[in-house]
Amino acid sequence: MQAFISAQGLVKHYGNTLALDNVSFEVYQNEILGFIGPDGAGKSTLFEILTTLLIPDAGEASINGMDIHKDYGKIRASIGFMPGKFSLYQDLTVQENLSFFANIFGSSIEENYHLIKGIYELLKPFANRKAGALSGGMKQKLALCCALIHKPLALFLDEPTTGVDAVSRTEFWDNLMQIRDSGIPIVVSTPYMDEATRCDRVAMIHNGRIMKLDTPDNIIKGYDGKLLSITCKDRQKPKALLQNEAAITSLYSFGDALHISLNNTDASTLKLISSKLEQGMDSPYQIKEVFPIFEDCFLQLMGQMKK
Amino acid sequence: MKNLSIFVRKEFLHIVRDPKSLMIMVLLPLVEIMLIGFVLRFEIANTNLAVVDMAKQQQSTKLIHRLEGGDRFKVRLTQSMPEAEELLTEGKVKAILYISEDFDRKAVENSESSLQLLLDATDPNIATTIEAYVKATLADFWVDSIGGSPVPMLITEQMFYYNPLLKSVYATVPGLISVVLMLICALMTSISLTREKESGTLKVLLISPLKPLQIIIGKLAPYLLVSLLITGIILALSFGVFGVPMAGSLIMLIMVSFVYCLCALALGFLISTKAKTQQVAMMMSLAGLMLPTTLLSGMIYPIKNMPLWLQGITYIMPARWFVSILKHIMLKASPFSAYAGELVVLLIMTGIFTLLSLKNFTTRFR
User: Fold this and answer.
1) Count of CB atoms within 10 A of residue B247's CB?
2) Are B18 and B222 in contact (CB under 8 A)?
3) Which residue ranges make up each domain of chain A?
4) How many CB pairs under 8 A join A and B?
5) What is the architecture, at CATH level 2, of domain A224-291?
6) Residue of A53, A89, A101 lying closest to B206 (CB–CB)
7) Buried b (16+ CB within 10 A) or exposed e, B6-25
8) A81, B200: Cβ pair inside 8 Å?
9) ipTM here
């Protein structure tokens, strides 16, 4: 299958800081590619390069055959972009924002209403409210409508769900699925690991590098070793007890638990750990094997990258 | 073109939705006219004075030497009244002293003398000061040269060519227009453009079929219109309330104001390409444009009294040229040729500012 968006060896420096380090990937017509990584990983830089706002120091990228250097005018006129910060006119109403963004692309709300119908229905009661007076989730939905209303060839959404409540985030991702199914490929970034499962493929990005790019299932399957979870009152205690154990590759707090990553799960290793805990712990605790989730995978990859 | 009209409509919505700024734009001229009209006082040095000496006798020559003596006047001797008047209308001299044939005889006879002082009252405060200086010099001269006889009542017949009531506001209005237009055009546009930068909407605008030039024209056009409206308000105020005359062509006045607005808009645009935030844009406009415009345009302080290096700076102030043109049109009804040079300077400045800002307006960042 021909890639719709492709990037080869993108590099970007800000002074001495390396923001993007040789980033390459491809996006296909019917997929959502998610870039997952912490703040400062290089996500926004990557988005601005793809949308032609920023010129990379090195590397090539194209969208539907249009080169980001030569054809940047054509790219700009045909894609949809939602920057990281909320970027609508706060003093204009919902309706005015939407028709402005439709009109400058030579389109109208009516023409492409089918694309935003699912999302806009929720906004409709507030059509005459100023965008600045909307709630966070509503603002993001409006911004998505504005990026969609001209029927873009591809959608670039930079952290569209940051600062939005859990319910709105779920709805937002449902909307993205609909959009993808209507044939518009989506490149999206998020700092929330739990949103990774909603993407078709996920690129884990850290310090300007893609650590891994695969389907969410494969990334979880690719977890190296086994994972134990300890729940107890004082998490520092087991941490101190176990930190010099050879079989343990990493130890980290995870929510209210402590996660222990093991490179092997021989009976002897497990026994060693439980005996150490039994001797050292003075309060009740619980230990069990758990399946890794995205955050565990991310932390493991980060640890491997350091080495 | 359609894109542009969509954009302009959006800009108007921004203006209308922000009633506070709109109020400031409208009220500002009123406040300024009150402040500037009443507070300012003037002082002069090295005033160009044309002397028409019809007497050409001992006493009149002495008087001329006396006038030349201090650092108050630079005397230019002219042969006839029409010649001197021409210098006055062109603004090359600020006053004319006419000495009639019988000056010597009448002075000695201690009878009524015949001197005439013509003052350029477009700067009324300056005109009054010049008048006082001339009078003082005459009184000194009388005591020294005519001798022991008591100083006669010396009546200088004043005939004002323009601004006969010596109203300060006549001089203030052109300066005021220049300041207010600079404020609205430069300040408002620079803030409005940096606002889009700050809020990130500029990025969204760039990722669209809109051409950079369309974005810029779309931004500037509404403010140009508002500025012309404000000019109208100030003029209506000046004519209606303060009775400022409109000696020359109103159409010319509007056209020149249009050019000046373009110049100020280009400056505002230039500032916005440099400023990252609205605050910075505001500071740059206020400190970099407003203050110099008020102080260096010649509206408040006569340019001639400034130190030379400061006089040099006034040459790059668009307001200096604009105020000069306005005085020509509003007060003197000078022919177009009298201010064509100034207009050309304004046009060149506008061109330079526009090119500079277009060069600085980045649509792809590094």
Assistant:
1) 15
2) no
3) 5-220, 224-291
4) 76
5) 2-Layer Sandwich (3.30)
6) A53
7) bbbebbebbbebeeebeeeb
8) no
9) 0.84
CA distance B182 to B349: 14
User: Model-level pTM?
Assistant: 0.75
E-only strand ranges, chain A: 5-14, 17-27, 32-36, 58-63, 66-67, 80-82, 155-157, 186-190, 201-206, 209-214, 226-232, 248-254, 257-262, 285-290
CATH class of A5-220: alpha beta
Report the distance separating Cα B73 and Cα B84, nearest Å.
15
> Distances in Å between the alpha carbon of B84 and those of A147, B68, B221?
70, 17, 45
Report the DSSP beta bridge partners of residue A113. Answer: none
Structure tokens at B159: 């005939």
Burial bucket for residue B166 (CB in 10 Å: 0-12, 13-18, 19+): middle
Residue B37 CA to chain centroid, in angstroms? 14
- Range with top average pLDDT, A17-21, A284-288, B111-115, B225-229: A17-21
Q: Is A52 in Cβ contact with B200 (below 8 Å)? A: no
Q: Kindly state the average pLDDT of the residues A75-92.
A: 88
Nearest to A91 among B17, B200, B206 (CB): B17
C-alpha span between A3 and A15 (Å, rounded): 32
| The residue type at B290 | M
Q: For A172, what's the count of Cα atoms within 13 Å in the CB-facing half-sphere?
A: 25
Contact A64, A154 (CB under 8 A): yes
Mean pLDDT by 10 residues, chain B (366 residues): 85 86 74 62 70 84 83 85 85 84 75 74 73 81 68 56 58 78 85 88 90 88 86 78 77 90 92 90 86 79 78 88 88 85 94 91 81
> pLDDT tens-digit profile of A111-138?
999 888 888 888 899 999 999 999 888 8
CA angle B235, B241, B243 (to 5 degrees): 75
B365 vs A106: CB contact, 8 Å cut-off?
A: no
Report the interhelical angle of B124-145 vs B58-69 (nearest 10°): 130
Rounded CA-CA distance B281/B20 in Å is 18
Distance CA B66, CA B222 (A): 57
